[in-house]
Amino acid sequence: MSAVLGIDLGLSSARAAVFDRRGRLLGSGRDSARVAKRDAPDFLPKSWLAMAIGAAREALATAGQPRIDAIGIGAFGPCPVLLDERARPVMAATMFSFSSASERHRKQLIKKHRIAEHLLGPDNTIPQLLWWRRKFPEAFARAAMVVDVAGFLVASLTGRAVIDPITLNDYTCPSLTPPVAVPDVVAVDEMAGGLTEKIARKLGLPAGTPVTTGSYDSHVDIAAAGATRNGQSAILLGSTIVMGTIVSTRFKTSAAARQGLRLTPHVGLGQLLGGWTSASGSLIEWANGLVDREDVLPVGVTPESGVLVLPYFSGERAPVWDSLARGVILGATLATKPDDIRRATLDGVALSTFDIGQRLFRVGGRRTHMRATGGGLRNAAWAQATADALGCRLEVIAHAGESIGPAALAMRALGHKFEAGIAKVISPDKRSHERYRRLYPIYRSLYPALRNSMHELGRMAEQENEVA
Questions:
Q1: Cα–Cα distance between 200 and 206 in angstroms, integer?
Q2: Per-chain mean pLDDT for the chain
């Protein structure tokens, strides 16, 4: 049976899935044994490769070892990886949200070169690379090129280093010369190369099996959900939230920036106009762990607890783009119960979706429905809260929690048309939507009022850590 293999490396695990040409799931796998702790600043690239291979082997085994025509790649990021001339990593990689030093350097570059904030946002890797060059001169001197996580996986699987146009967007900036070169730029849905003999033996596949260039898992998943042409919209619920609408290439970057949104290249035609958060599913998990609870909250509107959460626990991207932003729990009293905190956290995540959605609808047009994908849809309360906050129907694609994005990308690279089926539709609750509308003005006022305090606390914590 002819099939494709999709590999998706996320913050918490590597996942893989095998799909046939009709979009049927044949097998899946997951490997999280070697994932670094979520609060650790450094990630070892070699462990990513081990996880990807482990997940892929499990997926192939459960699928019955079918013939694989192509392998699709998606991965978290931005997270620069320095490679030497043989495409081997020269040092550990640091996730974008953990480096306060590179954030200070970013602000200095913006001021010095008079660069618009949206052209050198917190996701841009140049400030971090410049900081690395200063802090790790010996390792940096061995670097021949830089790639992101997807690029590292492709280089490890095929022996060829490439970068896609979407990722490249975070490695360039007008008025700044990148401190290290990028490899060949190859389209997301083109083949970067074939499996090396060494990797092929580990996977039990023929050497030379084609591997796509791939990109950020968010863009790959959004495309697989059905947002590839002008006017189509989708939302991804995962460790973070990504929401966007496809617009024409004539849409101006400045118009997006005024709403706290971003414009990026996309897998399909046009550009992706949208916003993405720094912590969503990961924050919900944090709240559950805080009160030692793993059960999912029941679906539906709960009585008002008077507690409101600002979900900027890992900095925030859209709409504030401030890696030094911090979370807030407002309104807690001695009568506040653990489930009040859990529900307020879920509501805070939903309000961040409401916030991005309002901005997106303002410039990209209001939506009555939106395609939805991502593992977060397994959480029924979160999925319903998302529909309620947006006030539109969510069309949940089939196999939304599997690695359908990279698999669909492999099909696209083979020239095979793929359209995800709709597994179910989640309709918004009007009462709950109105509740989010009432909470929104309070929610939106918190960051401007507390921004300076957040930054000052961050500086104090950083100074104390340096002393320790």
A1: 6
A2: 91
